[in-house]
Amino acid sequence: MTADRTDTDDLDHPLFARLYRAFDPIDRRTFGPHRRDLASDLAGRVVDLGAGDGAMFPYVVAGPRGTARTVDDSTGAESSLEYHAVEPDRTMRRRARSRAADVGLTVSFHDARAEALPFEDDSVDVVVSSLVFCSVDDPDAARSELARVLRPGGEVRFLEHVGGSGRYRTLQNAVTPVWKRVAGGCHLNRDTAAQFDADARFETVECVDTGVRTYPAAPVVRGQLRLADA
């Protein structure tokens, strides 16, 4: 495991990190199948955006073949997985390091924000975003960074909760100012999937309602984007 530090204003939410760890059994039951889908057949340079405490790591290691390496079906050659975890929260990053060691996943950790990724242009094959864009300070800048670092035809695989509708949305709007203070900057009412769909730099390959309802952070959608041709 290696580290690459950039300036994140020493972001740290230890209380939220403890609550997040307590939520782990629920995460496995509710999001486990969807995290497994995000991790399916990963290959090349992969960036786990907002990796948190490493919730994706066990699914990456397990995978459909029970290993963190994949096979190129067209050639039969083995292809290495180069896994990077971007996480600006100090406590989350420390716990993610521990989880990576526990599951045996080699990870390069980066103390950075989604709005300023420490990767070269056109250098990433897949970005995995699981329950991240709700707490990104500037989603527009973050999407621009994804478009910058992804190689032509690169993927974004996402699992995100989005704003609801009707009276439920009104409630989310009212609760969000307080909620984001105690939940690490999480916005209950953010329309992440719609923002992705409206961004001409990406093609929406799939976007489905998972049926998961973790109120008030619901509904939850899973999808895949592909970087559009220039």
Structural key phrases:
Class I SAM-dependent methyltransferase, 230 residues, single chain, methyltransferase activity, alpha/beta, Rossmann fold, disordered N terminus
Q: Brief overview, please?
A:
This protein has about 230 residues and is an alpha/beta fold. It has seven helices and ten strands.
Secondary-structure-derived class: alpha/beta
User: Any idea of the CATH topology?
Assistant: Rossmann fold
Task: List unreliable stretches of 5+ residues.
Answer: 1-8, 64-78
In the CATH scheme, the class would be Alpha Beta
What's the overall average pLDDT, rounded?
86
> Main sheet: which strands, in order across?
1-6-5-2-7-8-10-9
Helix content estimate = 25-40%
Main beta-sheet annotation: 8 strands, mixed
Residue share in β-strands? 25-35%
The backbone outline, from C-alpha atoms, is globular
Count of DSSP-assigned helices: 7
Order of helix and strand elements from N to C terminus: EHHEHEEEHEEHEHHEE
Give me the CATH superfamily: Vaccinia Virus protein VP39
* Total domain modules: 1
CATH architecture tag: 3-Layer(aba) Sandwich
State the distance separating the first and last CA atoms: 34 Å
Number of strands: 10
Rg for CA atoms = 17 Å
